[in-house]
Each structure stands twice: as structure tokens, then as C-alpha cells.
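Here is one chain, start to finish.
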Amino acid sequence: MPRLTAALLLALLAALWSLWTLEGARQGITITQGAVGDTPVTRYTDGSGGPVVVIAHGFAGSRQMMQAYALTLAQAGYTAVAFDFEGHGRNPRPMSGDVTAIEGTTQRLVDQTRAVVAASRQGDASVALLGHSMATDVLVRVAQDAPDIGPLVLLSAFSQAITPRHPQNLLLITGAWEPGLREFALQAAQMVAPAARYGEAVTTGGVTRQALLAPFVEHVAILQSRAGRAAARLWLDGFYGRDSRAAEPPTGWALLLLLAAITALAAPLARLLPQGHSAQSALPRLGRGGFAAATLIPMLTAPLLTAPIDSRVLPVLVADALALHLLVYGLIQGALLWWLRGAPGRVAPRAFAGLVIWGLGAFGLALDRYGANFWPTPDRLWIISALAVGAVPFMLADAWAALGAPLWQRILARLAVLLSLGIAVALDFEGMFFVIMILPVIVLFWLTFGLMGRFVAARAGATSAGLALGLILAWALGVSFPLFQTGV
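Its structure:
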């Protein structure tokens, strides 16, 4: 009991410090929600009416993912305007067009961004642009032949539209752990001055550039980089002749710690549940042979059975193929576990409801406010329902296999799932390529929601935890990946 009390106190203190840090970053800033046509827009300002900076997220991102930069710039007196691209976040309009042609999907995103720029402009002043990943190419093209566009700040950039003359004022910030993009940023600076080095601003013929490395970050962590935020602010100050002051609080660490604390707090909350008859001690452990059968058979058969099936039904990239894969995997593994371990037990309603509420409520609200969009638009609800057809059997089998299993079995079982999805990608690389981008989401899901489910399963059994986790996984996938409408 003393150890549990100490862990509970530590988790509460971590949550309080995190909230204090994250809310402190918002102090003095007015945050308003609006729209430009169908495009959801968030405006950040300290009320001083400083220069406008339009901020764009990357693929599978959202406005919330860019708020660390938006808040830093707003604290420095800029007016930051972030928006959701088509198919992303809470934008109800799907992406469309030919993704392989500049005149297709890219041009639609360029037009969308230009509409946001036009609606955000203050008088005749130039508008600065800041974007991440996919958005960097869009913003470079937005600035083409647009004298009303000011400096560009590009995070993790890649764009074939960058030339020795365009853009004229450009800062490229790349994570030190992004080797390919890091080299591209330096090459973009060397278009202006062949001897340019990282961290050196160079100017030739009115074109000014700098390639900068943000230390200790990769493609996602760069969105919280304190060095990156400071560099972006100073670069804009240089263009607009400002001398701003703003702190760069450790919002990235605060967000991670808050989510970790919410995950950890699921343990003492689970202890409030009544001990179920189907909890950990009720199921026999799998021997090495049984474990091998329950992991290797679904790992190999799921991709082989689903690869020949054309499952393109949902307007979300690879979501239908993923749901089918998870369904087959879960059904096969569940049948094997029933034979090897026996039934997982009945549903405990309180445990099921508690995990769903804590996962989607506490964790989901925190993530949505401080990190990334986690709430669906109405048109995504049926997509979440369709994903649940595959996610629920999959997570039920996953919780069933993990209950009472030693750590090495739990790790190898999850690796088998990732390998199975890798086989599916290899069998249909073009059709399943975007599954690669889903893999980190699934790993993070296991580290957070999966751990919450483990606490609940140890108390109330695998069935309640598995069903709840299946619904949460369907929700997480349904809100994370872009809507895409073909044939438009």
C-alpha cells in the first residue's frame, strides 16, 4: 500500500506540473476558433496586432500539433493563424485529386492555403508562412509569384519547388535525427551560397537562407523543439525588424509527462473495480509451443488471406485494408487462444465503461487540447464504427493473449503483429504503403491505452479490457488518418 500511495502521489504531482506548464504557455493569449469556408481555423494573439503568421501542419496532422510554435509566436506579439488541411483534423472536406500530380491534390491544398492567407491578412502587410513536412512543399508553392508573402519557416522540409531564387527569405529547421531531410535543408541553403553551413545565414542577390539543426529531435518531436521555436521567432523578427521576447517552455516534455501520468493513474483507479472471476489467475499460461502457435499462425495467415481482397470501401487511406487485416488476425488468434487457454470470461460493465471513459475522456481530452486532434467530425463516426469491426476482435485477442503472460511473450506477440502488417505491405506495397505510417500509432497505443487495459484486465478480466481497447483503437485510427475522396 505505501508503494501504491507513493506512485499515486508521484503521478498526481507529474500531472499538476504538466498542466501548469501547458496552461502557462497559453497565459495572456487569446485563442479563438473560426473558419474560412469549410476550413477550421484557430487564431492566437496577445492583442497587439503583430504581423500575421499562417501555420500549416503535415500529413496526418492537425492544428493542435502546431500550437507550440503558434503560442510562442503569439507570446512574441505575432498573430498566429493555424488551420486544418482538407481531410485532416476537424476539416469536413476530404482530400481529393491526383496525389501523384502537382496539379492534383497539391494544387487543392495550395488553393486552400491561399484562401486562409487572404482571410487572415491585416491591411497590406506581408504574411509569413510556417509549416511542417507535407505543408512545406505547399507553402513554397503558395509563395510563388506572391509579393504579399513574407518570410517562410519550414520544419522538416522537402520541396522540388525550392530554387536558387525562390523563396527569397527562407529558414529551414530540421531535426538532428532526420538525416535525409537534414541534407536537403543544407542543399537548399547552398543553392544561395555553395559554402553555406548549418546555422549560418547566407545572402546572395537579395535571397536570404539558413539551414538549422534542432538538436535531439526527429520528425515529430521537432514540433515541440524549444530551439526550433526560438529560431523561428528570431528569423521572423529579423525580417520584420522586431525585437521580441518570448519564452519557449518545455511543452513537449510536459505533454508526454501528462499523458504518462494519466496512463499511470489508471492503475489505482482499476483497483477500485471489484475483483472479477475471470481475472489474471483464472487462465492458464501458454507454454512455448502454444505461444508460438498463437502468434506465428495469425502473423503469417492474416496477410496471405487479406492480400487478394479489394477492401477499398472507406474514404480513409488504407483504413479498410487495415480493419480487414485486424479482423482476420483477431479471429484467428482468438480461436487459437480459446482452444489453448479457454474462454476469456464475461464482460464486467463497470470495467468496460471505466476504461472507455478514462481513455477517451481524460487521455483524449488532454491529447486534443495540447497535442493533436482526437475528436471526430460527424462524418467520421461511421468510419470509426467500421474500423471497430476489425479493431474489437483484434484487441480482444490481444488482451486475452497478454493477460498473465510474461513480459517476453507480450513483447514478442506485439512484434508479431507489426511483422504481419509488414508482410501485408510487402505483398501490396502501393496499396498498403500508408500502413507504415500507422505502425507508430499502434506502438504508442500499446504503450498508453494498452497499459491501461492491462491494469483493468488484471482486475476484471481480458474481455472487458479487450472490448474497450478495441473501441478506443478504432476511435484513435478514425480520427488520425486523412479522409480521401477518389475520383474528384
